[in-house]
Write a structure and sequence with these properties.
The protein has 502 residues and is of the alpha+beta class. The chain folds into 3 domains: 140 residues, Orthogonal Bundle (434 Repressor (Amino-terminal Domain)), CATH 1.10.260.40; 126 residues, Arc Repressor Mutant, subunit A; 191 residues, no CATH class. Helix content is 45%, strand content 13%. It has 20 helices and 10 strands. The strands form 2 sheets. It has a 6-stranded mixed β-sheet with strand order 6-5-9-8-7-10, sandwiched between helices. Helix 2 packs across helix 3.
Protein backbone atom coordinates (compact mmCIF):
# COMPACT_ATOMS: atom_id res chain seq x y z
CA UNK A 1 0.00 0.00 0.00
CA UNK A 2 1.38 3.40 -0.98
CA UNK A 3 2.23 5.73 1.91
CA UNK A 4 0.20 8.58 0.42
CA UNK A 5 -2.92 6.42 0.83
CA UNK A 6 -2.52 6.21 4.63
CA UNK A 7 -4.68 9.31 5.39
CA UNK A 8 -7.34 8.04 2.98
CA UNK A 9 -7.45 4.61 4.62
CA UNK A 10 -7.58 6.10 8.11
CA UNK A 11 -10.44 8.39 7.08
CA UNK A 12 -12.39 5.52 5.51
CA UNK A 13 -12.02 3.37 8.63
CA UNK A 14 -12.97 6.26 10.92
CA UNK A 15 -16.14 6.89 8.95
CA UNK A 16 -17.00 3.18 8.91
CA UNK A 17 -16.63 2.80 12.71
CA UNK A 18 -18.56 6.01 13.33
CA UNK A 19 -21.48 4.93 11.18
CA UNK A 20 -21.49 1.42 12.68
CA UNK A 21 -22.02 3.01 16.09
CA UNK A 22 -24.75 5.30 14.79
CA UNK A 23 -22.80 8.48 15.56
CA UNK A 24 -23.00 11.59 13.47
CA UNK A 25 -20.04 13.96 13.38
CA UNK A 26 -21.49 16.11 16.14
CA UNK A 27 -21.85 13.17 18.55
CA UNK A 28 -18.35 11.89 17.81
CA UNK A 29 -16.89 15.36 18.21
CA UNK A 30 -18.39 15.60 21.68
CA UNK A 31 -17.10 12.17 22.71
CA UNK A 32 -13.61 12.71 21.23
CA UNK A 33 -13.40 16.40 22.21
CA UNK A 34 -12.50 17.35 18.63
CA UNK A 35 -14.33 19.73 16.31
CA UNK A 36 -16.76 18.30 13.72
CA UNK A 37 -14.97 20.15 10.93
CA UNK A 38 -11.63 18.59 11.93
CA UNK A 39 -13.15 15.11 12.01
CA UNK A 40 -14.75 15.74 8.62
CA UNK A 41 -11.33 16.66 7.16
CA UNK A 42 -9.90 13.44 8.59
CA UNK A 43 -12.66 11.32 7.11
CA UNK A 44 -12.06 12.87 3.68
CA UNK A 45 -8.39 11.89 3.87
CA UNK A 46 -7.23 15.50 3.87
CA UNK A 47 -5.71 15.37 7.36
CA UNK A 48 -4.02 12.72 9.46
CA UNK A 49 -4.25 13.26 13.23
CA UNK A 50 -1.37 13.11 15.68
CA UNK A 51 -1.05 10.23 18.13
CA UNK A 52 -2.82 11.97 21.03
CA UNK A 53 -5.84 12.77 18.89
CA UNK A 54 -5.96 9.23 17.48
CA UNK A 55 -6.08 7.98 21.08
CA UNK A 56 -9.03 10.33 21.78
CA UNK A 57 -10.86 9.07 18.69
CA UNK A 58 -10.15 5.40 19.49
CA UNK A 59 -11.50 5.85 23.02
CA UNK A 60 -14.62 7.62 21.76
CA UNK A 61 -15.32 4.79 19.31
CA UNK A 62 -14.23 2.04 21.73
CA UNK A 63 -11.81 0.70 19.10
CA UNK A 64 -8.24 -0.45 19.85
CA UNK A 65 -5.64 2.08 18.76
CA UNK A 66 -3.74 -0.54 16.71
CA UNK A 67 -6.92 -1.51 14.89
CA UNK A 68 -7.71 2.08 13.97
CA UNK A 69 -4.26 2.85 12.56
CA UNK A 70 -3.85 -0.50 10.79
CA UNK A 71 -3.65 -0.33 7.01
CA UNK A 72 -5.84 -3.41 6.71
CA UNK A 73 -9.27 -2.55 5.41
CA UNK A 74 -12.33 -4.22 6.85
CA UNK A 75 -14.40 -6.76 4.96
CA UNK A 76 -16.80 -4.17 3.55
CA UNK A 77 -14.00 -1.87 2.35
CA UNK A 78 -11.49 -4.51 1.24
CA UNK A 79 -12.34 -4.10 -2.49
CA UNK A 80 -11.13 -0.50 -2.28
CA UNK A 81 -7.54 -1.70 -1.97
CA UNK A 82 -7.40 -2.38 -5.72
CA UNK A 83 -8.81 1.10 -6.35
CA UNK A 84 -6.24 2.81 -4.13
CA UNK A 85 -3.39 1.02 -5.91
CA UNK A 86 -4.75 1.47 -9.43
CA UNK A 87 -2.72 3.74 -11.74
CA UNK A 88 -6.01 4.85 -13.28
CA UNK A 89 -6.86 6.62 -10.01
CA UNK A 90 -3.34 7.29 -8.76
CA UNK A 91 -1.86 8.92 -11.85
CA UNK A 92 -4.67 10.82 -13.52
CA UNK A 93 -4.59 14.60 -12.94
CA UNK A 94 -8.06 14.86 -11.43
CA UNK A 95 -7.20 18.15 -9.73
CA UNK A 96 -7.28 19.94 -13.10
CA UNK A 97 -11.01 19.30 -13.17
CA UNK A 98 -11.63 20.26 -9.55
CA UNK A 99 -11.68 16.64 -8.37
CA UNK A 100 -9.43 15.20 -5.68
CA UNK A 101 -8.43 11.59 -5.26
CA UNK A 102 -10.30 11.67 -1.96
CA UNK A 103 -13.47 12.76 -3.76
CA UNK A 104 -13.26 9.70 -6.00
CA UNK A 105 -12.58 7.36 -3.09
CA UNK A 106 -15.47 8.81 -1.11
CA UNK A 107 -17.75 8.24 -4.09
CA UNK A 108 -16.58 4.64 -4.44
CA UNK A 109 -17.16 3.84 -0.75
CA UNK A 110 -20.89 3.81 -1.44
CA UNK A 111 -20.48 0.65 -3.55
CA UNK A 112 -16.86 -0.52 -3.11
CA UNK A 113 -17.30 -3.97 -4.66
CA UNK A 114 -18.87 -2.60 -7.86
CA UNK A 115 -16.36 0.25 -8.01
CA UNK A 116 -13.42 -2.13 -7.63
CA UNK A 117 -14.84 -4.29 -10.42
CA UNK A 118 -15.06 -1.20 -12.65
CA UNK A 119 -11.44 -0.23 -11.98
CA UNK A 120 -10.21 -3.78 -12.57
CA UNK A 121 -12.13 -3.82 -15.85
CA UNK A 122 -10.52 -0.57 -16.99
CA UNK A 123 -7.09 -1.90 -16.03
CA UNK A 124 -7.73 -5.10 -17.95
CA UNK A 125 -8.91 -3.22 -21.04
CA UNK A 126 -5.82 -1.00 -21.02
CA UNK A 127 -3.55 -4.05 -20.81
CA UNK A 128 -5.46 -5.93 -23.52
CA UNK A 129 -5.14 -3.04 -25.96
CA UNK A 130 -1.55 -2.26 -25.04
CA UNK A 131 -2.49 1.08 -23.51
CA UNK A 132 -0.16 2.76 -21.08
CA UNK A 133 -0.89 5.34 -18.41
CA UNK A 134 0.60 7.92 -20.80
CA UNK A 135 -2.35 7.34 -23.14
CA UNK A 136 -4.62 8.49 -20.34
CA UNK A 137 -2.34 11.48 -19.84
CA UNK A 138 -2.73 12.56 -23.46
CA UNK A 139 -6.49 12.01 -23.33
CA UNK A 140 -6.71 14.09 -20.15
CA UNK A 141 -4.58 16.82 -21.74
CA UNK A 142 -6.95 17.00 -24.71
CA UNK A 143 -9.92 17.18 -22.34
CA UNK A 144 -8.18 19.92 -20.38
CA UNK A 145 -7.54 21.87 -23.57
CA UNK A 146 -11.20 21.49 -24.50
CA UNK A 147 -12.40 22.82 -21.14
CA UNK A 148 -10.22 25.90 -21.70
CA UNK A 149 -11.16 26.30 -25.35
CA UNK A 150 -7.49 25.57 -26.16
CA UNK A 151 -6.74 29.16 -25.13
CA UNK A 152 -4.53 29.98 -22.13
CA UNK A 153 -4.64 33.63 -21.16
CA UNK A 154 -1.85 33.33 -18.59
CA UNK A 155 0.61 32.03 -21.19
CA UNK A 156 -0.50 34.64 -23.72
CA UNK A 157 0.16 37.36 -21.15
CA UNK A 158 3.56 35.89 -20.21
CA UNK A 159 4.55 35.91 -23.88
CA UNK A 160 3.43 39.51 -24.31
CA UNK A 161 5.42 40.61 -21.26
CA UNK A 162 8.54 38.82 -22.51
CA UNK A 163 8.32 40.19 -26.05
CA UNK A 164 7.62 43.72 -24.84
CA UNK A 165 10.52 43.63 -22.37
CA UNK A 166 12.89 42.97 -25.29
CA UNK A 167 11.38 45.63 -27.51
CA UNK A 168 10.37 43.11 -30.15
CA UNK A 169 7.57 44.18 -32.44
CA UNK A 170 5.04 41.72 -33.79
CA UNK A 171 4.57 40.42 -36.36
CA UNK A 172 8.22 39.72 -36.97
CA UNK A 173 10.33 36.70 -37.75
CA UNK A 174 12.27 36.37 -34.48
CA UNK A 175 15.83 35.42 -35.35
CA UNK A 176 17.88 32.40 -34.33
CA UNK A 177 20.72 34.53 -32.97
CA UNK A 178 18.33 36.72 -30.97
CA UNK A 179 16.93 33.74 -29.08
CA UNK A 180 20.32 32.07 -28.66
CA UNK A 181 21.64 35.25 -27.07
CA UNK A 182 18.70 35.52 -24.65
CA UNK A 183 19.04 31.88 -23.62
CA UNK A 184 22.77 32.21 -23.04
CA UNK A 185 22.76 35.52 -21.19
CA UNK A 186 19.63 35.14 -19.07
CA UNK A 187 19.41 31.40 -18.49
CA UNK A 188 22.93 30.00 -19.05
CA UNK A 189 21.68 27.78 -21.89
CA UNK A 190 24.03 27.04 -24.80
CA UNK A 191 22.72 25.90 -28.20
CA UNK A 192 24.54 22.94 -29.80
CA UNK A 193 23.44 22.44 -33.40
CA UNK A 194 25.91 19.73 -34.45
CA UNK A 195 26.32 16.95 -31.89
CA UNK A 196 23.10 15.05 -32.72
CA UNK A 197 24.54 14.48 -36.21
CA UNK A 198 27.18 12.19 -34.69
CA UNK A 199 24.59 9.79 -33.24
CA UNK A 200 22.49 7.98 -35.89
CA UNK A 201 19.99 6.61 -33.37
CA UNK A 202 19.18 10.13 -32.18
CA UNK A 203 18.34 11.51 -35.63
CA UNK A 204 14.61 11.29 -34.95
CA UNK A 205 14.74 13.81 -32.10
CA UNK A 206 14.24 17.47 -32.80
CA UNK A 207 16.10 18.47 -29.66
CA UNK A 208 17.69 17.02 -26.51
CA UNK A 209 18.02 18.85 -23.19
CA UNK A 210 21.17 18.28 -21.10
CA UNK A 211 21.28 19.68 -17.56
CA UNK A 212 24.62 21.14 -16.49
CA UNK A 213 26.70 24.27 -16.21
CA UNK A 214 26.09 25.60 -18.72
CA UNK A 215 22.87 23.84 -19.70
CA UNK A 216 22.90 22.60 -23.29
CA UNK A 217 20.06 22.39 -25.78
CA UNK A 218 21.09 20.10 -28.62
CA UNK A 219 19.11 20.87 -31.77
CA UNK A 220 18.93 18.61 -34.81
CA UNK A 221 20.77 20.26 -37.67
CA UNK A 222 18.30 18.83 -40.20
CA UNK A 223 15.49 20.98 -38.88
CA UNK A 224 14.49 24.05 -40.84
CA UNK A 225 15.42 27.42 -39.35
CA UNK A 226 11.83 28.02 -38.18
CA UNK A 227 11.77 24.60 -36.47
CA UNK A 228 15.03 25.34 -34.68
CA UNK A 229 13.66 28.66 -33.49
CA UNK A 230 10.53 26.90 -32.22
CA UNK A 231 12.68 24.51 -30.15
CA UNK A 232 14.45 27.50 -28.62
CA UNK A 233 11.09 29.13 -27.94
CA UNK A 234 10.00 26.02 -26.06
CA UNK A 235 13.11 26.29 -23.90
CA UNK A 236 12.24 29.88 -23.08
CA UNK A 237 8.74 28.68 -22.20
CA UNK A 238 10.06 26.21 -19.63
CA UNK A 239 12.16 28.94 -18.08
CA UNK A 240 9.77 31.87 -18.09
CA UNK A 241 6.74 29.84 -16.99
CA UNK A 242 8.69 28.12 -14.21
CA UNK A 243 8.02 24.61 -15.54
CA UNK A 244 10.27 22.24 -13.62
CA UNK A 245 9.15 18.75 -14.61
CA UNK A 246 9.76 18.32 -18.32
CA UNK A 247 10.68 15.98 -21.10
CA UNK A 248 14.33 16.02 -22.09
CA UNK A 249 13.63 15.30 -25.74
CA UNK A 250 11.36 16.54 -28.49
CA UNK A 251 9.61 14.41 -29.69
CA UNK A 252 9.03 12.61 -26.40
CA UNK A 253 11.13 9.52 -25.73
CA UNK A 254 9.54 8.79 -22.37
CA UNK A 255 6.57 10.01 -20.37
CA UNK A 256 6.94 9.91 -16.60
CA UNK A 257 3.97 11.93 -15.34
CA UNK A 258 1.02 14.03 -16.41
CA UNK A 259 2.81 17.12 -15.13
CA UNK A 260 5.53 16.46 -17.69
CA UNK A 261 2.95 16.12 -20.49
CA UNK A 262 1.19 19.30 -19.38
CA UNK A 263 4.43 21.28 -19.02
CA UNK A 264 5.66 20.16 -22.44
CA UNK A 265 2.37 21.36 -23.90
CA UNK A 266 2.63 24.72 -22.11
CA UNK A 267 6.20 25.23 -23.33
CA UNK A 268 5.10 24.54 -26.92
CA UNK A 269 2.15 26.89 -26.50
CA UNK A 270 4.56 29.60 -25.32
CA UNK A 271 6.80 29.09 -28.35
CA UNK A 272 3.90 29.28 -30.79
CA UNK A 273 2.46 32.39 -29.12
CA UNK A 274 5.87 34.06 -29.11
CA UNK A 275 6.44 33.47 -32.81
CA UNK A 276 2.85 34.25 -33.83
CA UNK A 277 1.66 37.16 -31.73
CA UNK A 278 -1.95 37.26 -30.57
CA UNK A 279 -2.87 40.82 -31.58
CA UNK A 280 -1.09 40.76 -34.92
CA UNK A 281 -2.61 37.41 -35.91
CA UNK A 282 -6.12 38.58 -35.01
CA UNK A 283 -5.59 41.67 -37.18
CA UNK A 284 -4.21 39.59 -40.05
CA UNK A 285 -7.13 37.15 -39.98
CA UNK A 286 -9.73 39.90 -39.71
CA UNK A 287 -8.30 41.42 -42.89
CA UNK A 288 -8.04 38.03 -44.61
CA UNK A 289 -11.63 37.10 -43.77
CA UNK A 290 -12.81 40.29 -45.51
CA UNK A 291 -11.64 38.97 -48.89
CA UNK A 292 -14.44 38.15 -51.29
CA UNK A 293 -12.52 35.16 -52.66
CA UNK A 294 -10.35 32.49 -51.12
CA UNK A 295 -6.67 33.09 -51.93
CA UNK A 296 -4.19 30.38 -50.98
CA UNK A 297 -1.16 32.49 -51.85
CA UNK A 298 -2.38 35.31 -49.59
CA UNK A 299 -2.93 32.80 -46.80
CA UNK A 300 0.61 31.45 -47.20
CA UNK A 301 1.93 35.00 -47.23
CA UNK A 302 0.46 35.57 -43.75
CA UNK A 303 2.17 32.40 -42.54
CA UNK A 304 5.43 33.53 -44.06
CA UNK A 305 5.31 36.85 -42.20
CA UNK A 306 5.80 34.94 -38.96
CA UNK A 307 8.56 32.67 -40.20
CA UNK A 308 6.88 29.46 -39.01
CA UNK A 309 6.01 26.05 -40.41
CA UNK A 310 2.53 25.23 -41.73
CA UNK A 311 1.78 23.14 -38.64
CA UNK A 312 2.82 25.90 -36.23
CA UNK A 313 0.63 28.36 -38.11
CA UNK A 314 -2.53 26.26 -38.41
CA UNK A 315 -2.30 25.00 -34.86
CA UNK A 316 -1.90 28.56 -33.61
CA UNK A 317 -5.12 29.38 -35.43
CA UNK A 318 -6.90 26.73 -33.30
CA UNK A 319 -5.99 28.84 -30.27
CA UNK A 320 -6.77 32.28 -31.63
CA UNK A 321 -9.73 31.96 -34.00
CA UNK A 322 -12.16 30.13 -31.67
CA UNK A 323 -11.40 32.57 -28.85
CA UNK A 324 -11.48 35.82 -30.83
CA UNK A 325 -13.86 34.97 -33.67
CA UNK A 326 -16.04 32.44 -31.83
CA UNK A 327 -15.85 29.69 -34.44
CA UNK A 328 -16.14 27.00 -31.79
CA UNK A 329 -16.82 23.92 -33.92
CA UNK A 330 -13.59 22.97 -35.66
CA UNK A 331 -11.04 20.20 -36.13
CA UNK A 332 -7.28 20.04 -36.69
CA UNK A 333 -5.67 17.07 -38.44
CA UNK A 334 -2.12 16.12 -39.38
CA UNK A 335 -1.43 13.40 -41.93
CA UNK A 336 1.80 11.86 -43.15
CA UNK A 337 2.34 10.09 -46.46
CA UNK A 338 5.42 8.24 -47.74
CA UNK A 339 6.04 9.97 -51.07
CA UNK A 340 4.79 7.93 -54.00
CA UNK A 341 2.63 5.64 -51.85
CA UNK A 342 -1.11 5.37 -51.36
CA UNK A 343 -0.92 5.11 -47.56
CA UNK A 344 -2.03 8.08 -45.48
CA UNK A 345 -1.52 8.08 -41.72
CA UNK A 346 -3.46 10.29 -39.33
CA UNK A 347 -0.75 11.25 -36.83
CA UNK A 348 -2.42 14.03 -34.85
CA UNK A 349 -5.88 15.42 -34.28
CA UNK A 350 -7.54 17.99 -32.08
CA UNK A 351 -11.26 17.81 -32.55
CA UNK A 352 -13.79 20.32 -31.26
CA UNK A 353 -16.46 19.34 -33.78
CA UNK A 354 -19.23 16.72 -33.85
CA UNK A 355 -17.31 14.81 -36.54
CA UNK A 356 -15.55 11.61 -35.46
CA UNK A 357 -12.25 10.73 -37.12
CA UNK A 358 -11.22 7.05 -36.90
CA UNK A 359 -7.60 6.58 -35.81
CA UNK A 360 -5.19 3.67 -35.93
CA UNK A 361 -6.91 2.03 -38.92
CA UNK A 362 -4.36 2.77 -41.66
CA UNK A 363 -3.46 -0.92 -42.09
CA UNK A 364 -7.05 -2.13 -42.46
CA UNK A 365 -9.01 0.78 -43.98
CA UNK A 366 -8.42 3.63 -46.38
CA UNK A 367 -9.19 7.21 -45.44
CA UNK A 368 -11.57 8.93 -47.84
CA UNK A 369 -9.59 10.24 -50.83
CA UNK A 370 -11.99 13.19 -51.05
CA UNK A 371 -10.61 14.69 -47.85
CA UNK A 372 -8.63 17.81 -48.63
CA UNK A 373 -5.95 16.56 -46.19
CA UNK A 374 -5.37 13.56 -48.46
CA UNK A 375 -5.98 15.29 -51.78
CA UNK A 376 -3.39 18.00 -51.09
CA UNK A 377 -0.78 15.33 -50.31
CA UNK A 378 -1.49 13.77 -53.69
CA UNK A 379 -1.09 17.19 -55.29
CA UNK A 380 2.26 17.68 -53.53
CA UNK A 381 3.41 14.24 -54.63
CA UNK A 382 2.48 15.10 -58.20
CA UNK A 383 4.57 18.27 -58.00
CA UNK A 384 7.52 16.26 -56.73
CA UNK A 385 7.14 13.61 -59.44
CA UNK A 386 7.31 16.38 -62.04
CA UNK A 387 10.32 17.97 -60.36
CA UNK A 388 8.40 21.07 -59.29
CA UNK A 389 9.86 22.49 -56.08
CA UNK A 390 6.97 24.43 -54.65
CA UNK A 391 6.35 23.60 -50.97
CA UNK A 392 4.34 24.38 -49.05
CA UNK A 393 1.11 24.35 -51.01
CA UNK A 394 -2.30 25.49 -49.82
CA UNK A 395 -5.84 24.44 -50.64
CA UNK A 396 -9.43 25.00 -49.56
CA UNK A 397 -12.60 22.96 -49.80
CA UNK A 398 -16.14 22.83 -48.46
CA UNK A 399 -16.73 19.34 -47.08
CA UNK A 400 -19.98 17.63 -46.18
CA UNK A 401 -19.91 14.26 -44.42
CA UNK A 402 -22.39 11.80 -45.91
CA UNK A 403 -23.89 10.95 -42.53
CA UNK A 404 -23.58 14.47 -41.11
CA UNK A 405 -25.71 17.57 -41.14
CA UNK A 406 -23.11 20.34 -41.40
CA UNK A 407 -20.73 21.78 -43.96
CA UNK A 408 -17.12 22.58 -43.07
CA UNK A 409 -14.83 25.12 -44.65
CA UNK A 410 -11.50 23.31 -44.77
CA UNK A 411 -7.99 24.71 -45.26
CA UNK A 412 -4.96 22.46 -45.79
CA UNK A 413 -1.22 23.06 -46.15
CA UNK A 414 1.27 20.42 -47.28
CA UNK A 415 5.06 20.14 -47.34
CA UNK A 416 7.89 17.56 -47.09
CA UNK A 417 9.01 16.51 -43.60
CA UNK A 418 12.46 17.64 -42.50
CA UNK A 419 13.55 14.63 -40.43
CA UNK A 420 11.88 11.83 -42.40
CA UNK A 421 13.21 11.57 -45.97
CA UNK A 422 10.70 10.92 -48.73
CA UNK A 423 7.76 11.64 -46.46
CA UNK A 424 5.22 14.43 -46.86
CA UNK A 425 2.84 15.88 -44.32
CA UNK A 426 -0.37 17.87 -44.46
CA UNK A 427 -2.07 19.89 -41.75
CA UNK A 428 -5.74 20.70 -41.98
CA UNK A 429 -8.10 23.05 -40.20
CA UNK A 430 -11.83 22.69 -40.75
CA UNK A 431 -14.46 25.12 -39.42
CA UNK A 432 -18.15 24.32 -39.28
CA UNK A 433 -20.00 26.80 -41.47
CA UNK A 434 -22.37 28.51 -39.06
CA UNK A 435 -24.24 31.80 -39.28
CA UNK A 436 -21.39 33.45 -37.38
CA UNK A 437 -18.83 31.99 -39.80
CA UNK A 438 -20.84 33.26 -42.77
CA UNK A 439 -21.10 36.73 -41.20
CA UNK A 440 -17.35 37.07 -40.56
CA UNK A 441 -15.78 35.18 -43.50
CA UNK A 442 -16.80 36.76 -46.79
CA UNK A 443 -15.30 34.04 -48.97
CA UNK A 444 -17.23 31.22 -47.27
CA UNK A 445 -19.30 30.63 -50.42
CA UNK A 446 -16.60 31.42 -53.00
CA UNK A 447 -17.77 29.50 -56.12
CA UNK A 448 -14.15 28.69 -56.97
CA UNK A 449 -13.79 26.62 -53.77
CA UNK A 450 -14.83 23.01 -54.56
CA UNK A 451 -17.63 21.32 -52.61
CA UNK A 452 -17.20 17.64 -51.90
CA UNK A 453 -19.29 14.94 -50.30
CA UNK A 454 -16.95 12.94 -48.07
CA UNK A 455 -16.94 10.06 -45.62
CA UNK A 456 -14.60 8.59 -43.03
CA UNK A 457 -13.09 5.69 -45.01
CA UNK A 458 -13.79 3.86 -48.26
CA UNK A 459 -14.79 0.78 -46.28
CA UNK A 460 -17.41 2.75 -44.31
CA UNK A 461 -18.75 4.67 -47.29
CA UNK A 462 -22.31 4.14 -48.54
CA UNK A 463 -21.76 5.82 -51.91
CA UNK A 464 -22.12 3.48 -54.86
CA UNK A 465 -18.90 2.69 -56.72
CA UNK A 466 -20.01 4.63 -59.82
CA UNK A 467 -20.69 7.70 -57.65
CA UNK A 468 -17.09 7.98 -56.44
CA UNK A 469 -14.26 7.82 -58.94
CA UNK A 470 -11.70 8.17 -56.15
CA UNK A 471 -12.67 5.06 -54.20
CA UNK A 472 -9.63 2.80 -53.57
CA UNK A 473 -11.33 -0.01 -51.63
CA UNK A 474 -14.77 -1.64 -51.79
CA UNK A 475 -17.34 -0.87 -49.09
CA UNK A 476 -17.64 -3.26 -46.18
CA UNK A 477 -21.28 -3.27 -45.02
CA UNK A 478 -20.42 -4.43 -41.51
CA UNK A 479 -18.46 -1.20 -40.98
CA UNK A 480 -21.32 1.06 -42.09
CA UNK A 481 -23.61 2.81 -39.59
CA UNK A 482 -26.83 1.23 -40.86
CA UNK A 483 -25.38 -2.27 -40.94
CA UNK A 484 -27.29 -4.86 -38.99
CA UNK A 485 -26.11 -8.42 -38.52
CA UNK A 486 -28.52 -10.69 -40.47
CA UNK A 487 -28.84 -12.89 -37.39
CA UNK A 488 -30.00 -9.92 -35.32
CA UNK A 489 -32.53 -8.99 -37.98
CA UNK A 490 -33.82 -12.56 -38.14
CA UNK A 491 -34.00 -12.77 -34.35
CA UNK A 492 -35.93 -9.51 -34.15
CA UNK A 493 -38.45 -10.74 -36.73
CA UNK A 494 -38.76 -14.11 -35.00
CA UNK A 495 -39.52 -12.59 -31.60
CA UNK A 496 -42.09 -10.27 -33.15
CA UNK A 497 -43.91 -13.19 -34.79
CA UNK A 498 -43.46 -15.98 -32.27
CA UNK A 499 -46.71 -16.85 -30.46
CA UNK A 500 -45.30 -19.27 -27.90
CA UNK A 501 -45.98 -23.02 -27.46
CA UNK A 502 -49.27 -24.11 -29.05
Amino acid sequence: MRSDNVPVIFGLKLKQYREERGYNLKVLSQKARLSPSYLNEIEKGKKYPKTDKILQIAAALDVPYDELVSLKLGKDLNPLESILDSPVIRELPLQLFGISQQDVIQLFTKAPTKAAALIRTVDEITRSYGMQVEHFFYAMLRSYQETRGNYFEDIEDAVQEFVTSHGWLQPMAIGYQQLAQVLAQQFNVVIDGNTIDDYPHLQGFRSIWVEGSPHVLLINSKLSTEQKIFQMGRELGYRLLGLKERGITSSRAEVTSFEQVLNDFKASYFAGAMLIGRESLVADMEEFFQRERWNGEAFLAIKQRYGVTPEMFLYRLTQIIPHHFHFDKYYFLRFSNPAGSQRYHLTKQFNMSPVLFPTGIEQTEHYCRRWLAVDILRELDDHQQRGVDHPPIAGAQVSHFINGENDYFVISLARPLALTPRTNTSVTLGFQITEEFEAKVKFWNDPAVPHKLINETCERCTLAAHACSERVAPPQPEKQPEYQDPRKSALKSFLAEYKGPQ
